[in-house]
What does this fold into?
Amino acid sequence: MLMQLGNDIKNGQNTDLYPSEKICIINELANGVAHEIKNPLTTTIGLLQLIKERNLEDKLLNQHIDVALEETSKINSIIKELMHISQPSRPDLTFTQIEFVLDEVSLLIDSDAVFNNVTVKRYYQPHLPLAVMDVNQIKRVFINLAVNAINAMPGGGLLEINVTYNQEQKKFKIDFKDNGKGISKTEIKKIFYPFYSDGNEKIGLGLTVSEQLVSKHGGQIKVTSEKGKGSIFTVHLPVVNTN
It folds into this structure.
């Protein structure tokens, strides 16, 4: 069953599922895959480390082992992501200024932006209220969206992060706008599935995790895009105005 679910997701089928059904499918798939891989991977890492300790003078062998350990470390990171999807922690909610969170995100992505010749600009509506959120979880969402935007502009470009507040809806609206390669209408329906590939590159788990974290906060992520003209990923988050 898990294999069939995985194939459906990979091929973009079942994209008309309700969000709750989609989350159940993803959770079941993630939990099954993570548990099936975790134990043999732990054994493999242990054996590689043991072989290395017993062959310290064989430089070529140790180089190969180091490469193998590096690759298994990547697999281990994926397993942790899958475990996070299948067993998400409850948000640790605190009051915070959303501007401060985005300022920190900008610092964290600065080297990626410079390396890819991407300019990052931030626009904050004046006098934004305090937000109630798990800072680490939402920071992770913002980093994922910002890095995806940077990767969508391999030849350089502009990433605009715009924050506004809707008084009537009591919600933040955070836009991540790029002028990169864009996403077709067909692809938009599939990008939040884990490991979805558009044929050129794998999107991985970032958007899957981000959608789940935002949902846990009572929010949504929406996408508008046009192939060849760029994309806007919009995060809607509820807020609390202490004034």
